[in-house]
Design a protein that fits this description.
The structure holds 2 protein chains of 2 kinds.
Chain A: H1 2-21, H2 29-65, H3 74-83, H4 96-126, H5 136-155, H6 167-207
Chain B: H1 2-23, E1 26-31, E2 40-45, E3 52-58, E4 64-66, E5 76-79, E6 88-96, E7 101-109, H2 121-142, H3 153-168, E8 172-175, H4 184-203, E9 207-211, H5 214-230, E10 242-244, H6 249-263, E11 267-271, H7 278-287, E12 291-296, H8 302-308, E13 311-314, H9 316-326, H10 329-357, H11 362-369
Parallel strand pairs in B: 8-9, 8-11, 9-10, 11-12, 12-13
Antiparallel strand pairs in B: 1-2, 2-5, 3-4, 3-6, 6-7
The chains are: A mainly alpha, B alpha/beta.
Chain lengths: 212, 372
């Protein structure tokens, strides 16, 4: 029986893989079928996953084991219940409070995190002695890091019209950005090809048994 | 004569003190100041002649174990990665190989968490400077000062995109990214959605907003509803066009692709946090001939948007978009504060590099200390 279920699972996976690949030609009923099953299944799975991986261990289990010791958990529980008031138009305003709390705390936490990781650590990493390298390529690499960073930051300076002399660092910044985008593009395409290879391997190995 | 006697007595006392210092041993442990209570400073003073040292720490069963040390022991040692308020017991063993003698001294200490971490001083200073700059510019903007913001072409396209959708009688698709509401990019995206929805309401153009998370859905509905109210068209607001699809990343993408090919929106906006799905979305939109505007601060996804969208908001432009579109005094003031921060960053880097070339590494250490 498990073998039969496994075989059915593989055939279904292969069928839906082809259904999704059929979108390369155009939108068609097979793609629609696969898409809607995928969306519906993932939404249902997502709900159950949240209940069992978040709500049960982090809320219900803790409250049932030690209610008085976990009173603080009643606050997020209440905020969650307030979100459910969106069901009725007349009580929808109540849900604005949990939304405001989430947006406010998220923004505050992000400020501290970004200030450290995106600002201080990046600034510190750029502060290097460019002539410290032992080879010419190392020195030119250091100089490129410094020039690229300074011009890249200047490109995002919105308070001055980028014309005349002010246009030069901005232009250099754009060139650096585009070169980095090109490199990222190539790198990611390679990673995506490996995903395609993985899918083709599934079809040839698990489904057709052409390869071992 | 009397003075000479006094002088001799003082000299004798000093000599005795020095002899005493050379023959007595001490081992002290103190809490490392200005830290989060994870380190103890161990100091010792041993009589001459002891040429080998061994430092031991008691484990939970109070059995002393040799400590593995990266550097030779001289007169002190900092033990870090400890737990605050825990008592730690140490034993210092000194060997005198010539006399085949050894002594050991025991001491204990307790690391304490401090209110201020001195190594994060640069973090505090930068935070105060940037915060003050933002408050200053926001107040100036509120007082009516008109600040200049340079043209951002990706945002100027918004009117064009809405106009095109209106002309064709087709909807606008807005995707607020695939991250939760706790991502600052999603918040920035929803700010832009407010501006876009207001223009769409004025033009009487339908807007579709598929959401990945329930919190984003609720916030998006509130934002769009308010925008329609501002535009004086509350009757045109359709809550069912702002809907939940699925939490699953690729399920969400498959759903949006279906919307793109079936409803054929005339304008697509992909603004927010995007990952592996960026090219799938943008390519599908491109195939339908829609005018596309994308923006994200996820640098590794920007190349895909650049090649497949008509306009792309790169990184910081996404955060500037709301201020640029609304020209709201508070947001424009905040943007000016950010610009001040960028100039400060350039200045810090330039000063830091000059000091590094001059061999003065303290400035970099001061800045990097906050990162640890």
């Amino acid at each position: 029986m498990p073998d039969l279920m496994n075989t059915i699972g593989i055939w279904l996976a292969a069928f839906f893989t082809f259904c999704i690949f059929s979108f390369l030609y155009r939108d068609n009923p097979f793609y629609k079928l696969a898409e809607q099953i995928f969306v519906g299944l993932s939404a249902g799975y997502g709900l159950i996953y949240v209940v069992y991986s978040t709500m049960v261990p982090n809320l219900f289990a803790k409250l049932s084991q030690d209610f008085s010791g976990n009173l603080i958990l009643l606050i997020p529980f209440a905020l969650g219940l307030m979100m459910l008031t969106r069901i009725y138009p007349k009580t929808q305003w109540i849900s604005r409070y949990p939304i405001s709390i989430v947006i406010g705390t998220s923004a505050a936490i992000s400020v501290m995190r970004s200030l450290k990781t995106d600002l201080l650590l990046q600034v510190g990493a750029t502060i290097i002695n460019p002539f410290q390298g032992s080879t010419a390529s190392e020195i030119s690499g250091n100089l490129l890091v410094i020039i690229g960073t300074l011009c890249g930051v200047y490109f995002f300076y919105f308070s001055k019209k980028q014309e005349g002399l002010a246009k030069i660092p901005s232009k250099i910044g754009v060139y650096f950005l585009m070169v980095s985008f090109g490199a990222t593009f190539g790198y990611t395409v390679m990673a995506r090809i490996s995903l395609l290879i993985g899918r083709l391997e599934f079809l040839r190995k698990d489904w057709l048994h052409i390869i071992n | 004569m009397k003075h000479i006697y006094y002088l001799l007595i003082v000299l004798l006392l000093l000599q005795s003190a020095m002899l005493w210092a050379n023959t007595t041993s001490s081992f002290t442990i103190s809490d490392k100041p200005w830290d989060k209570g994870e380190a103890l400073i161990l100091n010792w003073n041993l009589p001459d002649g002891y040429d080998r040292l061994n430092l031991q720490k008691a484990d939970s069963l109070m059995v002393y174990q040799d400590m593995e040390l990266d550097e030779p022991l001289v007169s002190g040692f900092v033990d870090d990665n400890l737990d605050p308020d825990e008592t730690y017991h140490y034993r210092l063993i000194a060997y005198n190989d010539a006399l085949a003698d050894s002594i050991f001294i025991e001491a204990q200490g307790q690391p304490k968490e401090n209110w201020f971490y001195m190594h994060k001083l640069s973090f505090l200073l930068l935070f105060l400077i940037l915060g003050s700059a933002i408050v200053f510019y926001v107040m100036a903007a509120r007082r009516g000062k008109d600040f200049y913001i340079r043209r951002i072409s990706g945002l100027d396209s918004m009117e064009e995109a809405i106009g095109r959708a209106t002309e064709k009688g087709k909807p606008i698709l807005f995707v607020p990214g695939i991250s939760e509401l706790d991502d600052i990019q999603t918040i920035a995206s929803l700010s832009i959605l407010g501006q876009l929805a207001q223009r769409a309401a004025e033009y009487n153009t339908e807007i579709i907003v598929p959401c990945r998370f329930a919190m984003v859905l609720s916030a998006a509905r509130e934002v769009v509803k308010e925008a329609y109210l501002k535009a004086g068209r509350p009757d045109a607001y359709r809550e069912d066009r702002i809907f939940y699809l699925t939490d699953d990343q690729f399920g969400y993408v498959a759903g949006i692709d279906g919307i793109i090919v079936r409803e054929e929106p005339a304008a697509n906006f992909f603004l927010g946090s995007f990952y592996a799905e960026s090219l799938i979305l943008a390519e599908t939109g491109l195939s339908t001939g829609a005018i596309q505007t994308a923006g994200t601060a996820n640098a590794h996804q920007l190349p895909f948007f650049v090649v497949s969208c008509d306009y792309t908001l790169i990184g910081e432009e996404l955060f500037a978009a709301s201020a640029y579109l609304s020209r709201d005094a508070q947001q424009v003031g905040s943007l000016k504060g950010h610009d001040f921060g960028k100039l400060l960053v350039i200045l810090l880097i330039v000063v830091g590099i000059i000091l590094e070339i001059a061999g003065q590494g303290w400035f970099k250490s001061f800045l990097m200390g906050a990162g640890s």
